[in-house]
Amino acid sequence: MPRRTRYHALFDKLRTPRKLPGFLKAASVCVLVAGLLSPLVQATPAAAAASNDYCGGQCSDILPPGENGNATLAQILLNQAFGTQPSHAEDQLGPYSNLATGYSTLTDAKINTFFNDSSFGVPSSQVASTEKPAGRSDVTIVRDKPTGVPHITGTTRYGTEFGAGYAAAEDRLWLMDVFRHVGRGQLTTFAGGVASNQGLEQEFYRNAPYSEADLQAQIDNAVASNGARGQQALGDANAYLDGINSYIDASDSGRYFPGEYVLTGHKDSITNAGTIDHFKITDLVALASVIGALFGSGGGGEVNNAISLLAAQEKYGVTEGTKVWESFRERNDPEAVLTVHNGESYPYGTKPADPQGEALPDAGSVTTEPLVYDATGTGADQSANAAAAAATKTALSSARRGMSNALVVSGKYTASGHPIAVFGPQTGYFAPQLLMLQEIQGPGISARGASFAGLSMYVELGRGQDYAWSATTSGQDIIDSYAVELCQDDYHYLFHGTCTAMDEVQQTNSWKPTTADGTAAGSYTMKVWRTKYGPVEYRATVGGKRVAYTTLRSSYMHEADSIIGFQMLNDPDYVKSPQTFQSAVQHINFTFNWFYADSSHTAYYNSGNNPVRASGVDSEFPVWGQAAYEWQNWNPATNTADYTPASQHPQSIDQDYYISWNNKQALNYTTASWGDGSVHRSNLLDDRVKKLLAAGGVTRSALVKAMADASLTDLRAEDVLPDLLKVVNSSTVTDSTAAAAVTKLQTWLTAGGKRTETSAGSKAYANSDAIRILDAWWPLLVKAEFQPGLGDNLYTAFTNNLYIDETPSAAHGPTGSHAGSSFQYGWWSYVDKDIRSVLGQTVSGPLAEQYCGGGSLSACRDILISTLKTAAGTSASTVYPGDSLCSAGDQWCADSIVQRTLGGIKHYNISWQNRPTFQQVVEFTSHR
Fold it and tell me: What are phi and psi of 129, to 5 degrees?
């Protein structure tokens, strides 16, 4: 038995700067432990349902790693030294992970082996603790034994929301503090200057450079514009803040606050000197701006679109080049999977017959607007510069964001006759998790589910008394780019004919080494120039005129507005039907797909403030910042305009089934992201759900199986590899290396094309060599197939519009490597259409040209075999080069999911699954 270290000696060693190995260095949504698999959580016996619960014990949910996201200093030190976990910090990670190997034998009776029972209330035998926060008599917080989830019950509205704030601080105080600083562009000053922290604050500050006055104005506007509900939201928010701040005071005086405050230098572990700042109402808007930018702000990328269009026109001429560009853009691809698939058309973002006001840049003139100025120390070193570049690329590519999935089946096709839903948001994996679970019961509120930490005055995704709802990112375009003509100097522009000064907004940050982050001292100033058309993102010339390209989104200065929709979703007196559900989510201005299920009905609605553009404006490209091309009835003082009416948003009630994995919503409804073509990861869900409906008698476990099976499948293998092998096998493969590779790929394809362990916990894939070959082959074949025909410039421009690949081990996706979410963005549709065309198959919405071998089957085959041979000879250590977690060549580890540390507690990595982070399984048995 190892010698036990005295507590104070361990503490003394770890409080020295640089001794704690950078647990906060992953405090980033873009950048980044191994341990033993936690014991399987046994299903809790069903208890008598609460009187207001109409789910009959058939509602379940899961949110890894665990509900408890706070840890004292002692708990952090023990975790860092010995891997021990605070109570309920990791107890949902094992069940979540185990579904990957356990789903094949799943039955309805076993669902809560892998999920939590999300029935309302807590059986008396399962009560772990009961508290009256701050001694209040009007609210009680009960925590259950299995997961430690807070069940908040209030007798007054104020008390209910006070309890919600108190519970949020108990479970996520440190995380909430981190993200209120992210939203203000102040993370490095608060948590340290490591490059990933620099990149994170830069990413969000560029898109939402708000002053304190801006944040307060959002609150004032949301309250003033929404009558009694606006006043109620303000009261709820203030009560919620009171609860948070009450916990801060109690934990500070009792010295059980999160240990990260000591490790980052905000509190002294011996004297307790230092402060934890109270939260204020503008902090909630800062938090909302981060979440909205991450998951609910579709659009952007117009300047990149212009660059690739110009490259296509240079290559092919204006007419043919435009045709080629449109074929790759796939605005309305006839082969794309649709969420609303009954033929309804919802035109939005379609190509105008006669585009007006386009302001395309002169070739080679575009430069990115600097953000960082006056950098010193580690604010100016090489890693800082790389982080800044990555942050800029992410911030300016919002069209490529979005995750989450949903499977909803009408009762007409289920065994019980009641609808079934398996759905949830795919928000990445963090420790503590961005989301937290809770149940809230009080006057006008009755719900259980997940909420973003610091915004949990309402359940944002979850279930009510007799209905459940969830969302996926939709990505329709609510962001436009304007070219404003400069006058006088680089910081004045013409607005409605008047030379107008830009508004300079800046934030200066500095940092020094702490125990948590030993990054040496440094500083910089972030500076954004704002116009009435939004922040400046690029500089260029258009027809020789100097311009600044700005970015304006409809939710800019309006992140607080959506609170009303969430308030309605929690109100049992408001949501009573599919129609009232749709009415509630119409009040959410973020771009989401919303799904609903009760005991008899299902529904869908696409939310977001879709601006009504001026006639002839093509939302794909920048337009001149002139009155003729502005959004209709746009008011620059308030950034409000006319928005498309609710009837023009994709929507449906009681369709046979709904699926969504960030795919195209409906006919003629253009999303901002590229890649909505013949092959999309939503195909994996659509194909499986169709098979279930054809067989009939769908059950909860059957729908979970469909989701889980899709979550382990390599999209390229299932939907593109068969045609690639048809080309390769169009004549006998005589090369032994290529033939062996073909055999391995075919064997894997026959086995289902999945990336699964040989057995639970083996940490090795079945058909691992075939997986390695495809991972190595894909980028080689795409380049060899398309670059010769497109030419270097156009090929590069198109890859800037859409990644070639997004494997589980890729580090370029919206949330970086080890993030689970995969196969959303890639060239699979292009390869699929081109290869089918070369094979002589019918292709609806084909590419404008044939690329593989110039359209020659034999030449295409030569390209595929040549690249396949190269891929087969590429070592695993080259395909999976290793990182801080994984050694080179470790395929399983390269794919694995990591709970990225945003605090002091670490968790083991789990086998890859491509599924929601928070997930519900629901089947209501009755209705009010």
Answer: -160, 155
Residue type at 754 in one-letter notation: K
End-to-end CA distance of the chain: 60
CB contact set of 647 (below 8 Å; sequence gap of 6+): none
What pLDDT sits at residue 27?
37
Quote the pLDDT of residue 401.
52
Residue type, 22: G
The pair of three-digit structure tokens given for residue 147, joined into one six-digit string: 């997961």
- To the question of pTM greater than 0.85 for the whole model, the response is yes
Nearest-5° Cα angle at 776, 770 to 779: 130
Could you tell me the sign of the dihedral formed by the alpha carbons of 292, 295, 297, 303, in that order? positive
The verdict on whether omega for the bond into residue 133 sits within 30 degrees of 0, i.e. cis, is no
Radius of gyration of the chain from Cα atoms?
Answer: 27
- The answer for residues whose C-beta is within 8 angstroms of residue 127's C-beta and 6 or more apart is 142, 143, 144, 145
Amino acid at 727: V
- Verify cis geometry, omega within 30 degrees of 0, for the bond prior to 65: yes
Distance (Å) of CA 174 to CA 12, 28, 427, 905: 23, 14, 19, 12
Q: Which of 435, 463, 460, 461 is nearest to 447 (CA)?
A: 463
3-state secondary structure of 200: helix
Kindly tell me the burial class for residue 483, based on how many C-beta atoms sit within 10 Å of its own C-beta (0-12, 13-18, 19 or more): buried
Q: Answer whether 364's CB lies under 8 Å from 488's CB.
A: no
CA dist., res. 747 & res. 754, Å (int): 11
Q: 729 CB contacts (<8 Å, ≥6 apart)? A: 742
In which region does residue 658 sit, left (phi positive, over 0), alpha (psi from -120 to 50) or beta (all else)? beta
Nearest to 60 by CA among 704, 922, 924, 707: 922
On whether the CB atoms of residues 160 and 442 are closer than 8 A, the answer is: yes
Contact 461, 595 (CB under 8 A): no
Please report, as a single letter, which amino acid is at residue 442.
Answer: G
Say if residues 97 and 37 touch (Cβ distance below 8 Å): yes
Mean pLDDT per 10-residue segment, the chain (928 residues)? 27 29 38 29 44 96 98 96 97 98 98 98 97 98 98 98 98 97 96 91 90 95 96 98 98 97 96 97 94 79 96 98 98 97 96 96 96 94 80 60 85 98 94 97 98 97 98 94 97 98 97 95 97 97 98 94 97 98 97 97 98 97 98 97 98 98 96 94 98 98 98 98 98 97 98 97 98 98 98 97 92 69 94 98 98 98 98 97 94 96 96 97 97
Tokens linked to 420 = 């079934």
581, with CB counted inside 10 A (0-12, 13-18, 19+), is: buried
Tokens of 423: 């759905």
Q: How far is CA 299 from the centre of its chain?
A: 14
Burial of residue 286, with CB atoms counted within 10 A of its CB: 0-12 exposed, 13-18 middle, 19 or more buried: buried
Task: At 285, list the tokens.
Answer: 């808007």
Judge whether 603 and 653 are in contact, CB under 8 Å.
yes
Handedness of CA 448, 441, 444, 117 (dihedral sign): positive
With vertex at residue 88, the alpha carbon angle to CA 86 and CA 92, rounded to the nearest 5 degrees, is 130
What one-character-per-residue DSSP string does 863-912 give? HHHHHHHHHHTS-HHHHS---SSS-TT-HHHHH-B--EESSS-----B--
Closest Cα partner for 701 from 420, 379, 303?
420
Helix (H, G, I), strand (E, B) or coil at 783: helix
Nearest partner of 217 among 281, 260, 163, judged by Cα: 281
Name residue, tokens 């909205």.
Answer: 292
pLDDT in tens, 629-638: 999 999 999 9
Q: Give per-residue pLDDT as tens, 533-578.
A: 999 999 999 999 999 999 999 999 999 999 999 999 999 999 999 9
Cα separation, 676 vs 671, in Å, equals 8
Collapsed DSSP state (helix, strand, coil) of residue 339? coil
